[in-house]
Amino acid sequence: MSFPKVRVPYLLLLPGFAFLFTFFILPIINLAQTSTQTRVAGGDTGEYEQTLAFGNYIQAFVDNKEQFGRSFLYATLATVFALAIAYPLAYAIAFKSGKFKNILLVLVVAPFFTSFLLRTIAWKQILGEEGFVVPGLRSLHIIGEQTTLTSTSIAVVAGMTYNFLPFMTLPLYASLERIDPRTIEAAGDLYANGITAFRRVTVPLSLPGVVAGTLLTFIPAAGDYVNAAILGSPNTKMIGNVIESRYFKIVDYPTAAALSFTLMAAILVLVTLYIRKAGTEELV
Amino acid sequence: MSQKIKDASIPTIPVKARFSRWFGRNLLRIYMIFGFTYLFIPVAYTFVFSFNDSGKSNLIWKGFTLSNWQNPCGAPEVCKALGNSIKIGLLATIFSTILGTMIAFAIGRYKFKGRSSSNLLIFLPMATPEIVLGASLLSLFLVFKINPGFWPTVIAHVVFCISFVVVTVKARIASLDPRLEQAAMDLYANELETFRRVTLPLVAPGIAGAALLAFSLSFDDFIITNFNSGTLITFPKFVYVSAARGIPAQANVIGSAMFFLALAIVIAAQLVKRKRTR
Amino acid sequence: MAKDSISARGDLRLTRITKSYGDFTAVDDLTLTIPKGSFFALLGPSGCGKTTTLRMVAGLEEPTGGSIHLGDTDITTTRPYQRPINTVFQNYALFPHLTIFENIAFGLRRRGIKDVKEQVEKVLNLVELPHLAERKPMQLSGGQQQRIALARAIVNRPALLLLDEPLGALDLKLRRQMQIELKWIQREVGLTFVHVTHDQEEAMTMADTIAVMNEGKIEQMGSPADLYDDPETAFVANFLGQSNLIKGKIDANDGDNLVVDLYGQKISMSKKRSHAVDNSLYAGIRPEKFRISRLGTPVRGNTLSGGRIEDVSYIGVSTQYVVAMPWGQELMVFEQNDDGVAPFNKGDEVNISWEPNFTFGLRGDEDVDAGTEVNPEELEE
Fold first, then answer.
1. What is the pLDDT of residue A150?
2. Does residue C373 fall inside a structural domain?
3. Domain with B175 in it
4. 3-state SS track over chain B
């Protein structure tokens, strides 16, 4: 080629990284700047000036610590449930499905294509007052006359679990499928029964998939507000709902920015600690 | 031969062992059926209610009709929103696939200074919650007095699609046997010809997969879109906004049609792949 | 009783073992005894059922019919972890997430054995890799991985050690070296080794007893020398080394010997080595047993005249000749380059001779090409 070979990778990176710099890094920097602004005295709604008001962070956190806690609690629960549901599913597809493997994989992804909002609303209607589940359970006296399934934190967590299930299943499947079945046979040959072989060989070897799957579930779940908005009640508000309303309803950009930045920083710290602990550097 | 041992071991162990193995196998099968049922309940619900003769609010079953399918634009906003989503999806797919594939080749095929920090830059957008991505971009647009709308939405979608494209294409490049390229050069193909005749065709399925993934991510996105689209209505946004007062059954028609269309594309791709390998 | 199977010791006996997958029968009514303490090889081309047999012994497959006993204990349906049997897997199947030390300690820990460290160190010394204990399998060379896989199995002191093509992934030189080491280790630890391979040279180098398998059945079993010198079927004659098989007719019965007519020329052979069932037979002679002589030179033993040198290849230790015979067959002859005799040239007219005792006889209705079309190197998985 006419240009020196050393430059090739940089030339390939240039357009994409220029784009990411402009529309990802710059906005994050700008977000940090916005987060320390305060309202212009006597100005219009939405007019702010830089005053390095780091107090915004403390104020934002104190006002919303409940929602922060809820976000991380719900996201953790949804991640744990999704892992519990997805692991056997991915295991079955990887090891027990024979020639149906590809079809089953397609079926895991397929629900994706019906808009996730439509599916979440479908759950709301199925589990709602007009749906068939609640009246059925009531007539069987499994739940009381006053009990509802929607507008509860259980419904929000269940919705998130459902929506992020494919994100958990696919990486799990990918890492389980890579395991050489002979290593599992070797464990059996070396006096490990089925459960021990699973615990000592299958699980450790699928760890990269567990890490990837939990990250792909936890990160979007922690910032989610759609499930809480559709399936929850005012008592299940997550930090995403707060940020959304600060932007659109209250037009309080600095607080929204401070909240966003805190959320992002918290997630990054957690993710870094988690990857360290799991010992899987290959993701980054 | 000790008859005693033989008699004691044969009738008890095999039955027990066979049963536990049978149970082990089928427990997972049964589990799989439950898992897939759970995944598909809302899809089936959406499909069934696309035939509901419901009028405006599609909450309660009122009778079977084909009219929603015969006239999917019966609720005009639905079709307009769908059109916007497809336009945004296609543009976001094209841009993110081109940019992402270039990055994937750089990272996957070359050793260079700054490779690990490049990987980090690709990982970061995936580790950032959508709401932060959307909110930060909106702040930037506001600073530069750009009104949210069509193009800001496209840009926002490209931002989060790029990383997924890079990861998908990079995986494909990593699975390539480097000897194939060496063989091509050995057979008198220069770098450019090698890339065009050998590398690109072999990576093409990965690129196609990445494009499909980018489109579906873009098409289904709500959070980032909601921040950057202003008054523009996309399909997910339409569904969200009209959820409170009931979604027209035409939305169910579109959702179900997208499901079957995507399923058909994936199955067709599988068939083509199988035909080629045969 | 399953708990007892782990302490079973003694000969391994397979009785009428069959394994079918749908219509395909991988192992067909196989009966076999492997004596305690022996180095036993199952030899055959890929797809002959040898690996399936091994996997049934290991407990990784369950037979469709028949039984497997270790000593007096029936282990036909016990789980792999309930058998005192360990396997050196093809491609080793080392656990990639564990260190070498933990790989080797795996079986000991499962059985709750106390002095794990001591035993692992001892076996690492045996395979001469004590310095690699803290590495991960991926950081080892193929030969090192092979030794670790062996160490991981023998550290358990199993009643039976199964080796599934253990040297298949190594290059030729390393393979030869490992063959000698394996043999030495087997003597050192005194375990029963069952070795599955498609490489006849490997089987002959290491095993006391070889069973040649073909299409799910055992063709012939015996010591390497027995199989080589007195093959009973064309498959064995061709699969183990090379053979010249010449069609003939039994002419006369002369005490312990037979007189055989090969295209009009009479030769003699030992009756004990004939496996013919009627008058027709194939006379088999190994290429290195032939001697070539110029016309007019006196010769001993059986002689076939009218040969013409078709091709000469000098390969150092020997020279290989292709000799065309009057009836159109080409015979393969290996001559040692040790007698200072000037080599023959293409086109030379020659006689071929050999000791009558070196002749073996196969049934006249055999397929002379059986076992030749399979090139084991090509079929390597």
1. 77
2. no
3. 76-247
4. CCHHHHHHHHHHHHHHHHHHHHHHHHHHHHHHHHHHHHHHHHHHHHHHHHHECCCCCCCCCCCECCHHHHCHHHCHHHHHHHHHHHHHHHHHHHHHHHHHHHHHHHHHHCCCCCHHHHHHHHHHHHHCCHHHHHHHHHHHHHHCCCCCCHHHHHHHHHHHHHHHHHHHHHHHHHCCCHHHHHHHHHCCCCHHHHHHHHHHHHHHHHHHHHHHHHHHHHHHCCHHHHHHCCCCCCHHHHHHHHCCCCCCHHHHHHHHHHHHHHHHHHHHHHHHHHHHHC
Q: Is pLDDT larger for residue C188 or for residue A6?
A: C188
Q: Does B22 touch chain A (CB under 8 A)?
A: no
Topology of A56-278 in CATH? MetI-like fold (1.10.3720)
Q: Which uninterrupted H or E stretch holds C280?
A: strand C280-285
Q: What is the pLDDT of residue A1?
A: 41
The arithmetic mean of pLDDT across residues B11-38, rounded, is 73
Number of neighbouring beta carbons within 10 Å of residue A26:
15
Q: Is residue B3 part of a domain?
A: no
Contact: B1, C78; criterion CB under 8 Å: no
Q: C262-269 long-range CB contacts below 8 Å, 24 or more apart?
A: C262/C304, C263/C325, C263/C326, C263/C327, C265/C303, C265/C304, C265/C305, C267/C302, C267/C303, C267/C304, C267/C356, C267/C359, C268/C302, C268/C356, C268/C359, C269/C302, C269/C356, C269/C357, C269/C359, C269/C360, C269/C361
Q: Do C78 and B2 touch (CB under 8 A)?
A: no
pLDDT in tens, chain C (381 residues): 444 677 888 899 999 999 998 889 999 999 999 999 899 999 999 889 999 999 999 988 889 999 999 999 999 988 888 889 999 988 889 998 889 999 999 999 888 888 999 999 999 998 889 999 999 999 999 889 989 999 999 899 899 999 998 887 777 888 888 888 888 888 888 889 999 999 888 899 889 999 999 999 999 999 999 999 999 999 999 999 899 999 999 988 878 889 999 999 999 999 999 998 888 999 999 999 999 988 888 888 899 999 999 999 888 888 999 999 999 999 999 988 876 666 888 999 999 999 999 999 999 888 888 887 655 444 443
Q: pTM for this one? A: 0.80
Domain count, chain C: 2
For residue C153, list chain A residues with Cβ-Cβ distance below 8 A: 189-190
- Domain CATH number, residue C119: 3.40.50.300
Q: Which residues pair with C161 in a beta bridge?
A: C86, C193
Domain match, C225 and C309 both: no
Note whether C209 and C334 are same-domain residues. no
Does C211 lie in the same domain as C297? no
pLDDT of residue B2: 39
CB contact under 8 A, B136 and A19: no
Range of the domain at C248: 242-366
State which H helix or E strand residue A39 sits in: strand A37-39
CATH code, B106: 1.10.3720.10
**Strands A48-50, A37-39: pairing kind:** antiparallel
Residue C236 belongs to a domain: no
What interface predicted TM-score (ipTM) does this complex get?
0.84
Task: Tell me which residue has tokens 């090739």.
Answer: A8
* A136 close to C (CB below 8 A): no
- Say whether both C204 and C287 belong to one domain: no
Residue corresponding to tokens 């929850």 = A232
Give the closest of B10, B17, B18 to C74, CB-based: B10
List phi, psi (to 5°) of B252: -65, -40
Q: Which of A180, A183, A191, A193 is best to mutate for the C interface (most C CBs within 10 A)? A: A191
My answer on whether C183 and C278 are in the same domain is: no
**Could you tell me which chains touch chain C, where touching means 3 or more CB pairs under 8 A?**
A, B
Which residue from C60, C81, C107 is facing A193, i.e. has the nearest CB? C81
